[in-house]
Amino acid sequence: MDDGIKLGTPLAISQDDVERALLEYAKDEPASSNARQSLQNAAPAAAAELNRALDVDVLDTLRRGWATVPAVGRALQLSAMKAAPPVIIRLDEHNVSATSHLVLGIGVAENALPELRLALEMKVAVQSATLAVREGKIELVALADTSVVARVKYKDVLLKEHACGINGAPRDPFRNQSTTTTTERRGSVDFYI
Amino acid sequence: MGGPIMRALRYLATLGISMLAVSMTAAVAQTRPCSSVPVAERAAARSAGVCRDVAPIIDAVPQITGASASIPIVGVVGLTFDDAKDRLGRFEVRRSYRASAEPGGTVLEQQPSPPARLPAGALVRVILSDGTLRAPPKVSPSEVDEPPSARAAAAPIQLPAPPVINSPPVAAAVEPVRPSATPRDSNVPPNSPAPISPVEAERFVVPNVLGMTTRNAQSRLGRYTVELRERASSAPAGHVIDQAPKPSTRAPAGQAIRLTVSSGPARNAAAPVASKQGTAPVSETFELANVTNRNTEDAGIALAEFKVIRVETASALPKGQVIGQNPAAGNMVKPGSAVTLQISDGSLATPASASTPPVAAPTSTAPTSTAPTSAVPTSTASVATTPVATAPAATTPAATAPAAATLDTTPPVATTPLAPVPPTANAEAPVQTSATEPTTPSFRDFVPLAVAALLAIALAALLLARRDRGRTEAVNVEPTFSPPTQSCVAVPIEQEIRFAARLEAGDARIEFTATSDADADADLDNGLYAEEATIEHWGDRHG
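YS: structure for the whole thing
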């Protein structure tokens, strides 16, 4: 699952999305009005940069929600303190709501304009999920039918919305353990697990 | 400011006139009147300059006794107009003409006549002869062809009694035969010698009368004896189609000038009728005279039958001097054709050459005329200053050969239109030009200077244009080095924009879907948070 489902997959930011965001951005930030045309011309570059920041596993967002469950939290703490066999936790049907911010820093020449903050809202409906907690980390063992609804907004302006379903979660929760622990990305999501 | 200057000029003029009068008086005093010389020796004395024929001009000394003082009138009858004007310098001289057999320009009468006295500036009218009345030649051509020296050495000619000159002429046909140059002055004493005879006179330039009517030609040749011949020609009847001696040559006054006059087109054009004297038929075209180095007036006279176009050119030669002609001399040109003369404007003359006074060259006939012309400036003296005026007459046997050779050796300039002929190239007057050549730069001397000046100007213009072009390029390059603007307002359109995106995690919530109450109670009993999360250990499942 880590190999195929990224935030950028369902939420690919296009040039039009950026131009619309910049248009609204220019209304709120007078300092950028002088560079409005240049920013408009640089919309493709901005879109590429945003998509690069979205190269994050979707499960990371889910993990943030799963970590709020008390049983999962205690298991994470215990597993972090002593080496023990992983704790298997099965979660029944639930919904995870996570909100993130996609921040775009803009520099014109040597000047920095106010950041463009896009809101990334995700609502994941999980039929059932089986988690394995070991060494302070959450691993996904099994995932039943899951639907994901993602939205990208600039304030109240909806820029992008995407819905997809996830099926076929891996049965061996530790098969991809190494990859999970070694992943480092520039725009990584901070998970305090 | 004008007052002192005018006074100074007036003073200088008075001083000059006084000095001139004193010098003239001294010159006259050195010679005695020819009337005091015996008749048998008079001619030789006159030739040697021992005596003079003109009365002393003592009366011409200005008497500056006041503005209202009267001045005695000097007799000028028999003199040329220029001489008369010089003598009557204190008066205003006006002239009128009368038909007469006297040489053209000779004073026939003056009003008032001596011994009247007039205040300075008064009007004195002189009546000049127009020379239109002509008598048959007194001197035969054979005699004319003799050299003047031989004639001077011969026995003096006994002049006939002077006719009455104040009587109006009746007609040319009834004009009595008399010498052409016999000035008679009422002021001259009765025992004064006769004026200069034609044989003894100076040589004058024979004007070009080709193409003129007979009357005009006779008027132009006033001082010569004109012989007319008729010849059938396509030229208008009555027009001169040939003349001998040729124009621009020199001949003494009274010499016979044979003019061939056209009698109209011949009936048989293929066989033109010969003249009455049996001379060869003459072409309608005339040979162009060489007017190079002559002044404009003489050139105009010499080319009277042509349409003269004057083109002024910067030159170091005196102003008005002909420096080139097109067509060149010697070409046969139809009358009325355009002849372009290149006239010097004197703009390139150096101060030294410009201030050089004209030098009267000695002529071959000097023995007969040195004394009078040195004391009294005459028109002939001024003519002698022209470069070609000193050439010996072609009609005299002694001078025919050099004159002809001179004319023949004149380089033809037909291939080079308007080629300026420097004075040095004129071999006709070697004696006269030798005095003025070194001080008068020729036109060709200035050609290299003019070319060099033009080249320098062109080079300077090119350098200036190149420098201006370099300045323009530098101006175009300058903005590259201007400091970048710091104002955000003037942000260029294509300025560098950098983006940096990151994902900041926000809050996350999980909501479990409600299940049965039994399951929820069991979880609570197990101390679990909710029945949504089922916890089991790895060892429990895998044994």
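YS: worth flagging: Residues 11-198 of chain B form one domain.
IM: good catch. Also The first strand of chain B starts at residue 32 and ends at 33.
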